[in-house]
TrEMBL record:
<comment type="function">
    <text>Radical SAM enzyme that catalyzes the addition of the adenosyl radical to the double bond of 3-[(1-carboxyvinyl)oxy]benzoate, leading to aminodeoxyfutalosine (AFL), a key intermediate in the formation of menaquinone (MK, vitamin K2) from chorismate.</text>
</comment>
<dbReference type="InterPro" id="IPR020050">
    <property type="entry name" value="FO_synthase_su2"/>
</dbReference>
<keyword id="KW-0949">S-adenosyl-L-methionine</keyword>
<dbReference type="InterPro" id="IPR013785">
    <property type="entry name" value="Aldolase_TIM"/>
</dbReference>
<dbReference type="InterPro" id="IPR022432">
    <property type="entry name" value="MqnE"/>
</dbReference>
<keyword id="KW-0408">Iron</keyword>
<keyword id="KW-0411">Iron-sulfur</keyword>
<keyword id="KW-0004">4Fe-4S</keyword>
<feature type="domain" description="Radical SAM core">
    <location>
        <begin position="46"/>
        <end position="277"/>
    </location>
</feature>
<comment type="pathway">
    <text>Quinol/quinone metabolism; menaquinone biosynthesis.</text>
</comment>
<dbReference type="InterPro" id="IPR007197">
    <property type="entry name" value="rSAM"/>
</dbReference>
<feature type="binding site">
    <location>
        <position position="67"/>
    </location>
    <ligand>
        <name>[4Fe-4S] cluster</name>
    </ligand>
</feature>
<keyword id="KW-0808">Transferase</keyword>
<dbReference type="InterPro" id="IPR045567">
    <property type="entry name" value="CofH/MnqC-like_C"/>
</dbReference>
<feature type="binding site">
    <location>
        <position position="60"/>
    </location>
    <ligand>
        <name>[4Fe-4S] cluster</name>
    </ligand>
</feature>
<dbReference type="InterPro" id="IPR006638">
    <property type="entry name" value="Elp3/MiaA/NifB-like_rSAM"/>
</dbReference>
<feature type="binding site">
    <location>
        <position position="64"/>
    </location>
    <ligand>
        <name>[4Fe-4S] cluster</name>
    </ligand>
</feature>
């Protein structure tokens, strides 16, 4: 453990073996070194963007046990939006100043690939400067399996139709034994990484996620982070890691309690320390709440995500995020924490600093 502390002091890369020992450190030791790293990278800045989440369907061919969003007997309200309905949402949100639309769907086998992809062309034709973040690796894998399209073919359509960056959804936890229990049939960890590597090879960027707080163990989280670090060494294409705190309501996993705040903060801090090659760590307020997300800014995180406006996936599992949050709320919370609010674009270019 002395060697690990020495490496944290000197900011040397933590080895794979040492990474598995990080959870043995107390919370405040982890916070000290994670905050040091965060401050070196970002100073007192806390980033956010003005964005809108759109989820065009919740009808899903997969049956992930952790998921409360897809239509099933615990959520018997299936829906499928038309392109016209999606465009109406886009029109309204652009009118309110939104700079990014984040579009993620369930895996609906009764639609065409054109339904999934051509909406991006419609949006870009009308709003060429609006950033489209869309198509998780899980969706790309679904279109590959459903329509016989190669990953390359799906991505070429994404690029042709105007997708600017990829979200990190579908990663869950990379350990295949865990995946077999919580999301069997969904994109494999190997293919999730392969898809992001291919996207990065096209000069495009993406986010990464890690879903934790369900049946995984600490070792599975470390393994997940190490695999992301390895790919980032190869491509440099990840903008940010988003550790997603799993929401327990309305799922098919028999777990009574959510993770406590200490375990969440430890995981944020460890993510900051292990991912020395990923610049940004989000404390995604939609899964941990705004107050804890602000605390996490002292534990290695430097981003809150965005205003969102409407959030359907996490709120279906019990998160208090259905109506998004206001820009003024972000600014006030950050300033009262003696930090600096910074509005960014989707690729972390600074738009406005609220001094």
């Amino acid at each position: 453990m002395r060697d690990l502390i020495q490496k944290l002091e000197t900011e040397e890369r933590i080895s794979e073996e040492e990474a598995y020992k990080l959870y043995d450190l107390d919370l405040f030791t982890l916070a000290k070194y994670a905050h040091k790293k965060r401050t070196k990278l970002h100073g007192k800045k806390v980033y956010f963007n003005i964005n809108r989440h759109i989820n065009p369907t919740n009808i899903c061919a997969d049956t992930c046990k952790f998921c409360a969003f897809s239509a099933h007997r615990k959520n018997p309200n299936p829906y499928l939006m038309s392109h016209e309905e999606i465009m109406q949402i886009v029109d309204e949100t652009v009118g309110r100043g939104t700079k990014e639309v984040h579009i993620v769907s369930a895996h609906n086998k009764d639609t065409s690939w054109q339904w999934y992809l051509e909406i991006f062309k419609m949006i870009k034709a009308k709003y060429p400067n609006l950033h489209i973040k869309a198509m998780t690796a899980a969706e790309i894998d679904f279109l590959h399996r459903r329509f016989g399209m190669s990953y390359e073919e799906v991505m070429e359509k994404m690029l042709e139709y105007g997708v600017d960056s990829m979200p990190g959804g579908g990663a869950e936890i990379f350990d295949e034994e865990i995946r077999a229990k919580i999301c069997k049939g969904k994109v494999s960890s190997e293919n999730w990484l392969k898809i992001h590597k291919l996207w990065h090879s096209k000069g495009k960027q993406s986010n990464a996620t890690m879903l934790f707080g369900h049946i995984e163990e600490r070792k599975h989280r470390i393994d997940h982070l190490l695999r992301l670090r390895k790919l980032q060494d190869e491509t440099g294409g990840f903008n940010a890691l988003i550790p997603l705190v799993w929401q327990k309501d309305n799922s098919f996993l028999d777990i009574k309690e959510q993770l406590d705040s200490e375990e969440i903060l430890k995981t944020i801090a460890i993510a900051r320390l292990v991912l020395d090659n990923v610049k940004n760590i989000k404390a995604y307020w939609a899964t941990m709440g705004l107050n804890l997300a602000m605390v996490a800014q002292e534990f290695g995180a430097n981003d809150l995500d965005g205003t969102i406006e409407k959030e359907s996936i996490q709120s279906a599992g019990g998160a208090k995020s259905a109506r998004g949050t206001k820009l003024e709320t972000f600014i006030e919370l950050i300033k009262t924490s003696n930090l600096i609010p910074v509005e960014r674009d989707s690729l972390y270019n600074e738009i406005r600093i609220y001094e």
